[in-house]
């Protein structure tokens, strides 16, 4: 994987306007992050996801969903490492990006579901210790639930159920 990423990085550097090469580079970085995460090499996973999110910014739409996935994965691993402040910061970026994508001209039910999932992740890390931010978490849960209105898919129902459960836990 290391060689594949190096080759893709070189290709992107040689063709800065080559969106297809950049997409493959971002995918490879995300895959490498997942590989490290599964092997409990969390520091490496966080670094690869951060690289993927940064590289995705160079795509025409600012990375869109690819960047959202990288940020979500990065926030998840940071939370697993109990780096709550860092996890919150990255999850907040993902939540803001997801909301823009869900409100944009290309908004789809999938984008709304992605936004709800990003909100769920952000609310979960907001309620985490130390210093839980329960009121803020409740507000994010409500906004994420609103994103799912009118979306009917198995994934949306699953995220909706998790949001309801979290709302109950938060007392709202």
Can you tag this structure with a few keywords?
8 helices, 172 residues, mainly alpha, 0% strand, globular
Describe the structure.
The protein has 172 residues and is an all-alpha fold. 78% of the residues lie in helices and 0% in strands. Helix 2 (19-38) runs parallel beside helix 4 (64-80), helix 4 runs antiparallel to helix 5 and helix 5 (84-103) runs antiparallel to helix 6. It is globular. The N and C termini lie far apart (45 Å).
Radius of gyration: 17 Å
Report the biggest beta sheet as strand number plus sense, adding barrel if it closes.
Answer: none
Number of helices: 8
Helix content range of the residues, please?
A: over 70%
N- and C-termini, Cα separation:
45 Å
Q: Provide the β-strand percentage band.
A: under 5%
Arithmetic mean of pLDDT: 93
Structural class: mainly alpha
Taken from the alpha-carbon principal axes, the silhouette is globular
Poorly predicted runs of 5 or more residues: none
Quantity of strands, as a count: 0
Order of helices and strands: HHHHHHHH
Task: Produce a short descriptive summary.
The chain is 78% helix and 0% strand. It has eight helices and no strands.
Task: Set down the secondary structure blueprint.
Elements lengths: L1 H13 L4 H20 L3 H15 L7 H17 L3 H20 L5 H18 L7 H14 L6 H17 L2
